[in-house]
Fold this protein.
Amino acid sequence: MSPVKVFGHPMLTNVARVMLFLEEVGAEYELVPVDFVAGEHKRPQHLQLNPFGQMPGFQDGDLVLFESRAIGKYIIRKYGTAGLDLLGENSGIEESAMVDMWTEVEDQQYYPAISPVVFECIINPFIMGGAATNQKVVDKSLERLKGVLGIYEARLEKSRYLAGDSISFADLNHIPFTFYFMTTRHASVFDDYPKVKAWWESLMARPAVQRVCKHMPSQFS
Ligand code: GSH
C-alpha cells in the first residue's frame, strides 16, 4: 500500500491540483474518498488532516499536510526527478525565482480573477449544492480576468511557458480552475489571447493532465 494518501474527491479543484503533481512526477498514491456532500470533511477524522475542514488532506507516512500548492511543492521536492525541474531549483536561483514569481501571480492575480466565475457558474450551482449564478460577480471577474490574460499574452510572446521555456509548477497550477472555466459559456474569452490559448492547449495535451482531468466533469446542466 502506498504511504502517500490524498483525501478528497478528484473532481474538486484543489484535490485535482495535488493529484496533478503526483501524476506529473509519477509517484504512487492512494486516493481516499471524502463524502463532502455528507459533510465528512467537517468531521473530527478529517479535521486531523486539515484543521480548516477543507479538501485535500494529504499524508505521506507520518507527515500530514494541507494547502494544495504547498503539498504540490513537497511532492516535487520529494518525488520529482532531475529531468523535470518544475520548481526551477536544479537550474539556478534566477530560474527558481521566476517560478516563484509566476506561482504568486497564479495565486494572487489569476486565481482571484478566474475563480469567482468558476464558483458562480459551476461549483456553487452544480457541485456544492445549487446556488444561483450571480451575474454581476461573473461580469466583474471577467473584466479582471481579461486584464490578467493581457499580461499573460505579453509574457507568452517572449517565452514558451510563464517562468521560461520549460514547463513549471507555475503553469501547472493553472489547470484545475481553467479546466472548469473552459466548460462555461465564457471560455471564448481566451480566443482573444492566441498565445495564452496555445499555452493552455499545450498544458491540456500532457498525459498527466489528461489522467487527472478525466475525473472532472466537463458538462453541467
Ligand atoms: N487553499 C486551500 C488549498 O489550496 O488546499 C483551499 C482548499 C479548498 O477550498 N478546498 C475546497 C473545499 O474543501 C475543495 S476544492 N471546499 C469545502 C469547504 O470549504 O467547506
Q: What stands out?
A: The mean pLDDT is 96. The pocket of glutathione is lined by residues 12-14, 41, 53-55, 67-69 (CB under 6 Å).
